[in-house]
Amino acid sequence: MSTLLRYEDWINPVRRVRRELLTVLPDEASEPPVLFVPGPAFTAGVFAEHWLGHTAGRGFPAHALTARDNGDLRAYAHDVVQTAAALPRQAVLIGHGVGAMIVARAVTRYPARAAVLVSPVLDRWTTLRQALTVNPAGALPAIFGGRLRLNARQVATATKPAKLPSYRGAEEPVGAPPVLVVGSPDDRVVPRASLDRTASRYGGAPLLFPGMGHDLMTGEGWTEPIDAILDWLGKELTA
Q: Does 7-128+168-238 carry CATH code 3.40.50.2000?
């Protein structure tokens, strides 16, 4: 059996759902497609405000997918893999927050051109400990298997309560794509130590944007991280 099709996927396939996909295409597509993946607390629209159009303006066909909201990491990753596989060219996957966890799982099943983990929530318990110090009322339900609720001190963009899945990170990405970790040392959701550990897991150091919060795609100065990401992609994809 192919390593891309795991036993669990074979005997217990993920239930199909209708997926929301937002797309902005460049006038002339000179670069591979980029698929943005938010966490289940956000929708694809969180990228539509700035990053989708900006990415398309740099020659990348830009897409954003809304994750289903059931707390099942396998189902989340399945949606990303199926969406990416349907694109006309091998895609770059960019995940934010829990979306970065989804992308980290998806690249163990889909041979992405590259992956970018933005403000990545991969270390579940470290993230919950951080949330308890900033927003205990929103974090306590998640400790006991409920939904995590982020407040205005943690993120500037309105979110909905969402289940926080677990990720063990034992599997290696298919095809060894380059992986970039991006975040802020002032993030009130993902602590700096977690950014360092995640980047080290992929053999690098995080690209940091001091003074910004968790939602780099909507905060003031949003152009800096996306331009840095696209510059990095330009170098990696031509190396």
A: no
Q: What does the block give as tokens for 180? A: 């970039």
Cβ atoms of 76 and 83 closer than 8 Å? no
pTM of the model: 0.84
Tens-place pLDDT, residues 119-130? 998 866 666 666
Burial classification of residue 203, based on how many CB atoms lie within 10 Å of its CB (0-12 exposed, 13-18 middle, 19 or more buried): exposed
How many whole angstroms separate alpha carbon 59 and alpha carbon 90? 15
Pairing type for strands 147-148 and 114-118 reads unpaired
Task: Note the pLDDT tens digit of each residue in 168-202.
Answer: 667 899 999 999 999 999 988 888 999 999 999 99
User: Nearest CA to 216 among 179, 182, 180, 181?
Assistant: 182
Domain regions of the chain by residue span = 7-128+168-238
Enter the DSSP assignment of 233: H
Share of the chain above pLDDT 70, in %: 72
Which residues are 118's β-sheet partners?
96, 182
Query: Is 81 within 8 Å of 105 (Cβ atoms)?
Result: no
The tokens describing 101, both together, are: 């966890």
Q: Is the pLDDT of residue 30 over 60?
A: yes
Backbone angles phi, psi at 126, to 5 degrees: -65, -40
Q: Are 1 and 7 in contact (CB under 8 A)?
A: yes
Rounded (5°) CA angle 186-189-194: 80
Q: Give the 3-state secondary structure of residue 186.
A: coil
